[in-house]
Write a structure and sequence with these properties.
13 helices, 392 residues, binds flavin-adenine dinucleotide
């Protein structure tokens, strides 16, 4: 049985980043991915911010995963009024992005193996036996001191170990549609129809877009098809993808003896707009660093590994305002949201100007709905601000 200090499962943003930070710390690291090609199949709208890439010194415009810049975020109310935000974001090619990060992990010294699906984890004394199905046929095992779960929303390793895993999810489906485009990250709200979610249209290339939906409603694809028909969006479907996203923020204890979870496996996706790449990168990096320290100290206990959530929960990606804002935002009635959105119709929230501030002041102090909801609106603004700064 081959021996490693650390096995990271899943070559998505979380797993890749965990493998990079552990390998850079000099830890003998193995990164296992079940699919033959890293990043494929993707389930992602592919939106990310410059800050997310800058945090890890990842290249932006000159990277092979760079697709196009996006400078605006628009949120359409059910009555079609719109509030906007200026942003510094991008559409990336997620497949290439994951491949780039896995390559960094290999360059840092991690061994990267594709077509290796982890099917079991057994505790042997102080260490672990990681059981793998290679090429869908051959069974083999690796020994490891710690395992990091980067398996995404399925949180497969956490479930095998009996760790805390995310409990609530929204479900996302998306078409890559040829023949339509937009210049911004566009979000379409209907609190009754798209429960706990929204429809998005993100620009992809010159003549195609990522058009998707997240919701807790059953049959999201049917709702997306209805939206496309109602708006007479005509485009050729180039690809259809889907997946789950944890919707209530990081689990409180994403650790057990010999175990840490990062990214969606730990529920880190932003609970307001469900962007999860950046939080996966950050939590993966941190998980890799804490695991490395524990390995050097020869202490793989849950108690030692609790340093990870203790730090994670001080970071903005785990800020409580995000989940509080989720609860208020997704409980709006369409008519109340329409009311507020109509008052701020056409404004950039980051640059309200004098008339915009007067309107916001009107909502907070004079408006009959605004006065009643003043506390909730403040909480929601805080969650939106954190999300705008850290959620993608
Ligand atoms: C439709 C949709 C659109 C989205 N759009 C955006 C967006 O625009 N921007 C954004 O920031 N976020 C978006 N997200 C969320 C984002 O994709 C996730 O939060 C992010 O991918 C989480 O990264 P991760 O590394 O935790 O998990 P993943 O990216 O899911 O990676 C997990 C990896 O683990 C591998 N794996 C799983 N089980 C095993 C096993 N047993 N053995 C070996 N390997 C295994 C998988 O093959 C996969 O490669 C979207 C999600 C969906 C579903």
């Amino acid at each position: 049985m081959e021996e490693f200090d650390l096995v990271v499962v899943g070559a998505g943003p979380a797993g890749n980043r965990a493998a990079i930070s552990a390998a850079e710390a000099g830890v003998n690291t193995l990164l296992l991915e079940e699919h033959p090609i890293i990043g494929r199949p993707i389930s992602c709208g592919e939106g990310i911010s410059r800050d997310a890439l800058n945090t890890f010194d990842l290249p932006v415009e000159d990277a092979d995963y760079f697709n196009r810049p996006v400078k605006e975020f628009r949120m359409f109310a059910p009555n079609a009024s719109v509030v906007k935000l200026r942003i510094d974001g991008f559409i990336i090619n997620r497949e290439k992005f994951d491949q780039y990060n896995a390559k960094l992990a290999a360059e840092a010294g991690a061994e990267v193996k594709t077509r290796h699906r982890v099917i079991g984890v057994k505790r042997v004394g102080e260490e672990l036996e990681i059981q793998v199905l290679k090429n869908n046929s051959e069974k083999l095992s690796f020994s490891s001191k710690i395992v990091i779960d980067g398996t995404g929303p399925s949180a497969r390793i956490g479930k095998m170990i009996g760790a805390q895993t995310p409990e609530k999810y929204v479900f996302g489906v998306e078409y890559k549609l040829k023949g339509i485009t937009t210049e911004s990250f566009d979000f379409y709200l209907d609190f009754e129809k798209y429960k706990r979610g929204y429809i998005w249209i993100f620009p992809k290339g010159d003549d195609h877009a990522n058009v998707g939906i997240v919701t807790t409603r059953p049959e999201p694809r049917k709702l997306l098809d209805e939206f496309i028909t109602e708006r007479q969006i005509e485009g050729e479907i180039m690809q259809y993808i889907g997946g789950a996203i944890p919707m209530t923020g990081p689990v409180k204890e994403p650790v057990e003896n010999n175990f840490l979870a990062a990214g969606d496996a730990a529920g880190t996706a932003n609970a307001l707009f469900y962007g999860g790449i950046r939080a996966a990168l950050i939590s993966g990096d941190l998980a890799g660093k804490i695991a490395s320290k524990a390995i050097k100290e020869k202490n793989y206990s849950k108690e030692r590994l609790m340093e990870y959530p203790n730090i994670l929960f001080t970071l903005p990606i785990a800020d409580e305002s995000i989940i509080l804002a989720h609860r208020i935002f997704y409980n709006f009635k369409n008519d109340v949201y329409n009311h507020f959105s109509t008052i701020l119709d056409g404004y950039y929230l980051d640059k309200l100007g004098i008339s915009g501030y007067l309107k916001a002041g009107y909502i907070g102090f004079l408006d009959k709905y605004g006065r009643k909801m003043r506390k909730e609106l403040w909480t929601m603004i805080k969650g939106f601000k954190t999300t705008a700064e850290w959620g993608f």
